[in-house]
């Protein structure tokens, strides 16, 4: 993964300035009405340390860390005590849009992002209330969560606002006079977000706070009141999948996307094609559908498949960034169109027909950029074996004819062709760190670099 939100077992939150405990991850404060616990990181000031230097919490402070704490740990969270809780009415629970904000059902026409939010409501109700409960167990339980969304037309992209606040209050009665039964009566749940995608993150957090109690057969939220204010530490939180070296069925990709939404990760980096195979059935160059398969079982994705995956991901608050690795991982192209490659069919080459080679690169990138709606398009550029051009007779002749002194210049020409194409199509090119190692500031200033080698 790249820029993952948090790593396991090595996170130390900056302590609340009010506490005197040096190693606390949670601090205790009290008021006249109730006690609460605070966990926050002061503007996401997370200390990442080696295991040997990691601060540890005392058992006293660890006891204030609730078992149903939201993950990833939010920027700020305060919560009540273990014995204060509310129950939810599984049979009638609903997410209700605040009419003072965006995404009301009466709004016409309904925006795409609002429609996605309503689908998320239905999806999470099935996810949260996964046990059948007797009707009597839901008496006096909370039956709705109020959601306020400020903007209805936000596009899911790199800079979308995913911040939210989530407040879960107990009964308004004085906590000192509540009986055990009354403590579980109706409170209220309020979500506020700038965009629908922030609201989706809030609903995910809410779902993690709700637990099924087997003894009472009720859905409960403990440690109320909860006050959570959260936003991502990284705006880009991705998982990379490779469907070329190992074909991934569409059902598997959907499962991965669903899992990403549970962890509030927001980018699926789809390494679509490589040397091993070209598993996209291009409509511009249909020969890829006959010669670029991973195996004889015709494992491909159609343009409709890609459109469906992109839409499925969007509905889960996940962007899909495609990767077509040019020019170092293109031998699968050669099987489909030999005239754009070296004689060994191992890498793209301008030698036989430079115009055709450039056309194929441009047309394929244009076709795919129309299917993937994200503003980022990854073009690889790593692991280019320039010796393949040095050993190809026709490429050597081409270099002499055009006064090209080094095969590294052919490498740069392909990188620039890919980047210029994506920029012309209105998207942002992304490349692996080797392009910077090799070409530095000669690259277009609009290129985003992604590191995978330490020496970069």
Automatic annotation (TrEMBL):
Enzyme class, first EC level, given as a word: hydrolase
Ranges of compositional bias, category Basic and acidic residues: 13-23, 39-48
Domain Beta-hexosaminidase eukaryotic type N-terminal: 70-209
Active site: 383 (proton donor)
Record-listed E.C. numbers: 3.2.1.52
Biased amino acid composition, Polar residues: 1-11
Keyword annotations: Glycoprotein, Glycosidase, Hydrolase
Single GO MF descriptor: beta-N-acetylhexosaminidase activity
Listed GO CC annotations: lysosome; membrane
Catalytic activity from the UniProt record: Hydrolysis of terminal non-reducing N-acetyl-D-hexosamine residues in N-acetyl-beta-D-hexosaminides
Domain Glycoside hydrolase family 20 catalytic: 234-453
Biological process terms in GO annotation: carbohydrate metabolic process; ganglioside catabolic process; glycosaminoglycan metabolic process
Gene3D superfamilies: Chitobiase/beta-hexosaminidase domain 2-like, Glycosidases
Low complexity compositional bias, start-end: 27-36
Residue numbers spanned by region Disordered: 1-60
Family the UniProt entry places it in: Belongs to the glycosyl hydrolase 20 family.
Protein name: beta-N-acetylhexosaminidase
Organism: Ditylum brightwellii
